[in-house]
Amino acid sequence: MSLGILCSGQGGQGPGMLDPLRREPAAQAVLDRAATAMGRDLRALVAGPEAGMHDNAVAQPLLCAVQAATWAALRPHLPLLRAVAGYSLGELSAYHVAGALDAEDLVRLAIRRAEAMDRADPEPGGLLAVRGLDRLQLEGVCRDCGADIAIENGADRFVVGGHRATLDALERVVLALGATVTPLPVTVASHTRLMAPAAEEFAPVLVASGLQAPPLPVLAGIDGTPVYTRERAIAALTRQMTETVAWVACLDGLVEMGCTVLLETGPGNALARMAAERHPELAVRSVSDFRSLSGAAAWVERQLG
Asked: What's the rounded Cα separation, in Å, for the pair 150 and 139?
């Protein structure tokens, strides 16, 4: 029996996500340092309009701060991990959980990543979840419309990225083909060719950062294979900005590495739901499913015996 951690991406943030962390001194200390790095009052951010929390420049460092704070409170109560995987932005947090990146560096990198992505393309962009088409069908539609497959979540579950006008055109086509679509609260076309200038800008930032070789394996988002060296970590984090995130391969990779229990850092439980659907034999939950972080830790303890 082994534990794997899933680090959430953007989309699950909400006004109550700091509440369980404020009761944990270790978590609050991380949030205080993150607020200094961001130059913002995090409590005011989550108390303000929810749309503000989905602005890319706010969402990326805020979510990384929340995950680092969650991990600071959880880590002393959990057994040694087998592996870590992060969804989209969560791949950056995964290196923190694995011990390759301290909390301050994580937040600073998230700030620089968001800035680079916001500068990469002057036209409004975004992401659209598409369900009900296989990859070959969707690739054809993307070629015709000028969009890219940003994330692969399953055989007929994908996220497509592009300019807003492009996504509007693609939505009409895939609806006519019988698919269902869900616009995602993300303001850039992550994991698409439109982010090439951002990847070029962010790569040297990663090289100059305190990122180390991960003491525990982190699964690369682009192919689900384990990363053990600093060089490959930098390459994987750079490439995922412009290439499809193979999340289904990450889930399969966790199973192949022997993970039998998976815990998502949150906020939200989207990754836990996807993992349970893909691998119903696993014990899978998110910290957001529990009223307290101690409840999440106790669940892990019960699952691992």
From this structure: 11
* Residue 3 · residue 78 · CB < 8 Å: yes
Residue 124 to residues 50, 103, 142, 201: CA-CA distances in angstroms? 19, 31, 18, 19
Measure Cα distances from 30 to 17, 25, 150, 258 in Å: 15, 9, 31, 31
Token digits of residue 251: 């889930």
Identify the structural domains of the chain with CATH numbers, from first to last.
3-120+193-304 (3.40.366.10), 125-183 (3.30.70.250)
Q: What is the pTM of this model?
A: 0.96
Residues 30 and 25: their CA atoms lie apart, in Å, by 9
Q: Measure the CA–CA gap between 136 and 179, rounded to whole angstroms.
A: 14
Q: Scanning the structure block, which residue is given the tokens 């992401």?
A: 127
- Which among 150, 183, 190, 151 has a CA at the least distance from the CA of 167? 183
Q: d(Cα 282, Cα 267) in Å, to the nearest integer?
A: 20
- List the pLDDT tens digit at each of the 305 positions of the chain: 899 999 999 988 888 889 889 899 999 999 999 999 999 888 888 877 766 778 899 999 999 999 999 999 999 999 999 999 999 999 999 999 999 999 999 999 999 999 999 999 999 999 999 999 999 999 999 999 999 999 999 999 999 999 999 999 999 999 999 999 999 999 899 999 999 999 999 999 999 999 999 999 999 999 999 999 999 999 999 999 999 999 999 999 999 999 999 999 999 999 999 999 999 999 999 999 999 999 999 999 999 98
Count the helix, strand and coil residues of the chain and give each as a percent rounded to the nearest 5. Answer: 50, 15, 30
Contacts for 103 with CB less than 8 Å, ≥ 6 apart: 30, 33, 34, 65, 68, 69, 72, 96
Amino acid at 4: G
